[in-house]
UniProtKB/TrEMBL annotation:
Pfam families: Abhydrolase_3. Keywords: Hydrolase. It comes from Ampelomyces quisqualis. Residues 462-488 are annotated as: Disordered. This is Alpha/Beta hydrolase protein. The lineage of its organism: Eukaryota, Fungi, Dikarya, Ascomycota, Pezizomycotina. InterPro entries: AB_hydrolase_3, AB_hydrolase_fold, GDXG_lipolytic_enzyme. One of its GO terms (molecular function) is hydrolase activity. Residues 462-482 have a biased composition (Basic and acidic residues). Residues 158-399 form the Alpha/beta hydrolase fold-3 domain.
């Protein structure tokens, strides 16, 4: 996105009344969030609400993607080594298709994606660089990778999936985040450029994520890295990246469940039959695991959040272009409505997490809290180790957007410590902490019973109603012309 002074002025000038009102209400303590937020947080969140809310001007999908996936360049305390890995045999794709069929009801409609080359980049912490220092211009991608490896202090490899509601953003925009994860974990980050919807609906992104994991374990001939043991790999992601993490984990669990007890599943990958083990752990930041957007906090926990509610999303407008509306038309960007309750689409629908590696959750007082709390509590009941960190009065993915907030470095340290410790094999027990806004005081919470009172039956009922809501959009004829826009 363009960041010149003139572009910034053009963006902010129409928002002047909003900025002045926000500052005034905050200064007079008339805002309901004034006791928990500083002025900068208040302005940032209110600006985000204005930019992505129902009153934002309509644009086309491809234009939004062009703005949000633009590479800002590499500068500061980050190593970035880009890779493009060759495609493998069809076996990985077919194995995933079988899992989708086995886990579904048979009523889901979905498109079988083709295998394609994997694009990603290695990120690490570049300690000696100035904050505004560009990357070395005379280094090859291999030399950047080698330089990054010299700065690692642990064996941790984080397989990172970016957020963006499955249709926005790009690994390039996440370099400050992945660099910080590398710093806090002492390791390195493999950041994946998965295919975006609506051009590439479910399960294209999942196939890319699965391929990325196998490429770490069993590098293709053109990869710069040596094989990475599974017990040194942690999946991590924020928001829709949390969808990728939990869907990939469920895919792996299903592949393991389909094999005789005690045997390790395998697949043919780049000419070899290779093992498919489970990773060391999974680190989730405000994960989006219910694509139907249906649990109570989605509509009820809006005070501190900026995400649009389902009712606002139902009225969103995209100008018609080559990407949207799709043919055949659908209401949900990521998948056809018939697939919304599939466990690999909405991992909240998955009931069996019993053999999962340890899970880490970092959430705010946000609209996705209920679904995250349900999954955490369900996993603990099935014997999975869960580390829960909840930040009072914080919005969705707050640490990435509010770097000045005193809770941001706490989140980063907690996530990095989890990644480092789970790879090091340290004994880890289920524990939960709520961290107060401003003071950062900590109080314990019972992860087994104290996160939510929403039972599995209620969850299923909410998700079915959410699916029905989205299906009704599809049955309304899909297309309503509003000043050249498409309302879905």
């Amino acid at each position: 996105m363009e960041s010149s002074p003139s572009a910034l002025l053009k963006l902010l000038l129409p928002k002047t009344p909003l900025l002045m009102k926000t500052a005034l209400w905050h200064g007079l303590s008339l805002s309901p969030t004034a006791a928990k937020w500083d002025l900068r947080t208040s302005i940032t969140v209110n600006m985000l609400r204005e930019m992505i809310g129902p009153n934002s001007p309509p644009s086309s999908i491809t234009k939004v993607q062009a703005l949000t996936t633009k590479d800002p360049g590499v500068k500061g305390k980050v190593w970035a080594s880009k890779v493009k890995l060759a495609t493998a045999e069809d076996n990985v794709r077919q194995l995933m298709f079988k899992a989708i069929d086995d886990m579904g009801t048979g009523e889901e409609n979905w498109t079988k994606p083709e295998t394609q080359s994997l694009e990603a980049e290695w990120n690490g912490f570049r300690a000696a660089a100035r904050d505004d220092e560009p990357e070395p211009a005379d280094m090859s991608e291999q030399e950047k990778y080698d330089a990054m490896m010299k700065e690692t202090t642990s064996k941790t490899t984080v397989l990172y999936f970016h957020g963006g509601a499955m249709y926005l953003l790009d690994p390039a925009t996440y370099r400050p985040t992945t660099s910080r994860i590398a710093r806090e974990s002492g390791g390195r980050v493999f950041s994946v450029r998965y295919r975006l919807s609506p051009q590439n609906p479910f399960p294209a992104a999942l196939l890319d994520c699965f391929t990325a994991y196998l490429s770490l374990l069993h590098p293709p001939p053109d990869a710069p890295h040596a094989p990475v043991p599974a017990n040194e790999i942690v999946f991590a992601g924020d928001s829709a990246g949390g969808t990728c993490c939990t869907a990939l984990l469920q895919l792996l669990l299903q592949i393991h469940r389909s094999k005789p007890s005690g045997s390790t599943p395998t697949v043919r990958f780049h000419g070899k039959e290779v093992d498919i083990p489970l990773p060391a752990g999974v680190a989730l930041t405000s994960p989006w695991i219910d694509i139907t957007r249906s649990l109570p906090s989605i509509e009820g926990a809006t005070l501190y959040d900026y995400l649009p509610t389902p009712s606002a999303i139902d009225k969103r407008e995209f100008r018609p272009d080559s990407a949207w509306p799709t043919t055949p038309k659908r209401a949900e960007l990521y998948c056809q409505s018939s697939a919304l309750l599939h466990p690999l689409v909405s991992p909240l629908a998955a009931q069996d997490w019993s053999t999962s590696p340890p899970l880490f959750f970092s959430v705010g007082e946000e609209m996705l809290r209920d679904e995250d709390a349900v999954l955490a509590q369900r996993a603990v009941a099935q014997g999975v180790t869960v580390v829960w960190r909840e930040f009072e009065a914080m919005p969705h993915c707050f640490a990435m957007l509010l770097e000045h907030n005193p809770g941001a470095p706490v989140h980063q340290q907690e996530l990095g410590s989890f990644c480092r410790d789970v790879v090091a094999g340290k004994t880890m027990e289920t524990n939960g902490v709520v961290i107060e806004a401003k003071t950062l005081k900590r109080r314990g919470v019972d992860v087994a019973k104290g996160l939510t009172e929403i039972g599995d039956g209620e969850v299923e009922g909410h998700m079915r109603k959410g699916k029905e809501r989205i299906e009704r959009k599809e049955k309304r004829g899909h297309r309503t012309e509003v000043e050249g826009s498409v309302v879905l």
